[in-house]
């Protein structure tokens, strides 16, 4: 048995029974959190000194396309309908070779780990089974906990999007699941559905039925950008043909334009929502769904989404998403001719949306999301002895408002240290770097994207 002890840290457990503890220890055995307390025995344990550090559960990014990492920095001035669909889905994605899936996924996963995200839902467009296999290899080699999401192939936008009547490639999906994913403790599978916005009703229902048959999560891009007018001919149709199929195994990415009534219904059915606030603000998706989900009594989760555009750092998303919602809520009060005397969403709320709520959305809350004995040790240590973070008067606020990835000293996934003293431990960061850069250059070259 391997034992590790995170010693003498300020533990923000996010577990209501444990709460926040100062100068506390977290004991880990074979990757499992077994105790949170004071002065725990260090016998036969590797000691990780957490004095002057805040220990939080690893972030959960509930929506990101990791394979776009080597084309990062191209979409920062793009809108969804103006450039993104044409250039990304209609061009670049089709040029990916299996090795590009590997390199993008690998360095996307490295960015996740470096910035404190220990679990991500990786929404993938695998052109062939081999593309999917290499994307999974990347997640495994990086050591990220992940929900690999098999979406429609990226090689033919006309075939797989718009009014597509072609179901997801079932044979490939089953083979990937039986092969690489089955016995991997850190990986699970989801299906990336087009949903009624992007395929025929029969196809949308068929894909969801396939996910149910496999017993895996369905995640769907819905209710963003010009929707519903361009998609539904001007008539609002809410969840359309899948309305009677909603459940806790359905995750909606974006969902900007759903009515409050439909969000109420979906939350009641256990549907989770992934808001990707920075990308949505930029690209014309519409107002993030955050407020409607909260109004319905649910809690949204955060995602980065398009890392060809914005940084993969989840800290930015939890801050932007929260501040934007505060702005809308404050404005509503002001328009009622009253003073704003309290904020609507707290720093702790947004930290929970970035951790345990993401875990719930991915069906992983029994395993991760809080620092609780019995859960896996996915932990992040923030340094408070830095001139930019000291003095720490409120650990939650220091994490949410003052910290950036440079203050993340140590990251553990499943009890394994993946970042130590501010550096990733994986030798592939250096070994694969040149191939990663070359992959991005080739893709943009062949796509003829002139920036
Ligand atoms: Zn997306």
TrEMBL record:
Segments forming domain Amidohydrolase-related: 54-418
Keyword Hydrolase attached: yes
UniProt cross-references to InterPro entries, sorted A to Z: Amidohydro-rel (IPR006680), Metal-dep_hydrolase_composite (IPR011059), Metal_Hydrolase (IPR032466), MTA/SAH_deaminase (IPR050287)
Family annotation (Pfam families): Amidohydro_1
State the protein's name.
Answer: Amidohydrolase-related domain-containing protein
GO terms for molecular function, please? hydrolase activity, acting on carbon-nitrogen (but not peptide) bonds
Entry keywords, A to Z:
Hydrolase
Keyword Hydrolase assigned: yes
Query: Which superkingdom?
Result: Archaea
